[in-house]
Design the sequence.
């Protein structure tokens, strides 16, 4: 019997029951209220489980929640000092994941073996623990494919686009990557450069990108 | 009494000249007549039921009440419609009535229960990390109904169907067992059996949703050490989840996690 899930889920534990990130997100999704899965009303969900088998399952659920939440709200990055109030907590049941536990969960999800849905953003000083991370409800590779596909379909190969246009331009209003962080876009474009599909001219604000 | 060898009239019957042997032979004739009559009736009935199942295969598949009645009817005449169901079209083992039925009923009913059994096994496997191998029959049903494929996706599946499907697995071994906990019925898909204390705590959890050590002491009259030992066992077997943000640590049954 085939599993019902076709979207990316952590390879270690697949579940036909896990909710994958939505395949299309069109416009301002904050107008549609995010539906929290039932397990977010389960008090133990906010306690890191002592039994490791149970914990593994718990972390899979956290991974699913994180990716669907961020995809819905178009959050590309999480900052530990200013987290959304209802992501790691459910005020109605007076439960929340503690800061150290949040870190543990994110660190777990950052491991490639667990799907690599999170990547810590390095701080300027090596000695400091990172305080923010990317949330890859689409992986950088998927973003690269999506952006390149759009460039191709709209006949913009050979034209030079600014990074701003790609992120915020009128032409991308209905695209999933609209509003993407500058740094993340640069990372994604970097992948296309490596593949020989793009070239970046200039620096920072005046940077232009040409696709091949 | 003087024996009267004249075998006529009423006196003939009180005559011990009618030997036990004659009685025996007479009884034998009656029995074989009955058996023959019965066999004839049964084969007529079997043929009728066979035709019925073919005509109504679709109904049997799609209508759970119909299915339940059909199964009850089969059991009432001492036949298990699922016996030998995973041996399609062959003579089956020893030509027992069961395997003859499997041939006669056709693949439809067998397929339904066999596929259902496979789905049940899958659901148990997928959820084992979450519930330690104890899952309510009703939860299995809900998950299957949500799924795709031949089972689920529009076909009404009842708790009854699920238990029947599991029964069909019994000849294959595999250790799936129905465990009643309070008023609910659970499927246990791990070999480890619960001891009485563990079952009791799980039952209490079914009713109250969660327990604390104090609640076990108060409600069951247990000593603290005993309550703690049982809880530790249940946690170790991943049968319960821990909530450490309450005033006293709470232990929850995962059955409530995906409700609604």
Sequence:
């Amino acid at each position: 019997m085939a599993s019902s899930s076709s979207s990316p889920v952590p390879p270690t534990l697949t579940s036909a029951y896990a909710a994958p990130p939505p395949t299309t997100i069109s416009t301002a999704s904050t107008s549609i209220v995010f539906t929290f899965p039932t397990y977010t009303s389960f008090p133990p969900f906010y306690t890191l489980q002592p039994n490791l088998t149970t914990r593994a399952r718990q972390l899979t659920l956290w991974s699913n929640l994180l990716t669907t939440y961020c995809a819905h709200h178009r959050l590309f990055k999480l900052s530990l000092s200013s987290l959304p109030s209802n992501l790691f907590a459910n005020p109605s049941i007076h439960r929340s994941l503690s800061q150290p536990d949040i870190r543990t969960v994110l660190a777990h999800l950052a491991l490639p073996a667990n799907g690599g849905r999170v990547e810590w953003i390095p701080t300027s000083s090596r000695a400091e623990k990172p305080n923010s991370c990317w949330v890859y409800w689409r992986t950088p590779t998927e973003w690269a494919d999506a952006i390149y596909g759009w460039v191709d379909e709209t006949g913009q190969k050979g034209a030079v686009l600014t990074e701003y246009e790609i992120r915020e331009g009128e032409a991308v209003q209905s695209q999933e990557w609209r509003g993407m962080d500058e740094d993340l876009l640069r990372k994604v474009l970097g992948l296309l450069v490596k593949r020989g599909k793009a070239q970046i001219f200039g620096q920072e604000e005046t940077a232009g990108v040409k696709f091949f | 009494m003087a024996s009267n060898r004249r075998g006529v009239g009423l006196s003939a019957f009180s005559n011990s000249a009618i030997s036990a042997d004659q009685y025996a032979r007479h009884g034998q004739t009656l029995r074989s007549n009955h058996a023959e009559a019965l066999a004839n009736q049964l084969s007529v009935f079997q043929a009728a039921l066979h035709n019925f199942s073919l005509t109504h295969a679709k109904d049997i598949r799609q209508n759970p009440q119909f299915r339940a009645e059909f199964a009850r009817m089969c059991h009432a005449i001492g036949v298990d419609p699922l016996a030998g169901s995973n041996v399609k079209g062959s003579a089956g083992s020893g030509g027992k009535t069961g395997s003859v039925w499997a041939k006669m009923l056709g693949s439809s009913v067998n397929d339904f229960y066999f596929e259902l059994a496979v789905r049940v096994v899958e659901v148990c496997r997928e959820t084992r990390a979450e519930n330690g191998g104890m899952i309510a029959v009703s939860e299995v049903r809900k998950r299957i109904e949500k799924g795709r494929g031949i089972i689920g996706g529009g076909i009404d599946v009842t708790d009854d169907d699920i238990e029947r499907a599991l029964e069909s697995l019994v000849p294959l071994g595999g250790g799936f067992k129905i465990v009643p906990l309070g008023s609910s019925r659970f499927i246990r898909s791990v070999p480890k059996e619960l001891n009485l204390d563990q079952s009791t705590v799980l039952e209490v959890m079914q009713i109250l949703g969660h327990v604390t050590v104090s609640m076990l002491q108060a409600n069951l009259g247990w000593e603290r050490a005993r309550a703690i030992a049982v809880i530790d066992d249940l946690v170790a077997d991943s049968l319960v989840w821990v909530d450490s943000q309450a005033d006293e640590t709470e232990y929850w049954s995962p059955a409530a996690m995906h409700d609604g």
Summary: The mean pLDDT of chain A is 85. The radius of gyration of chain A is 19 Å.
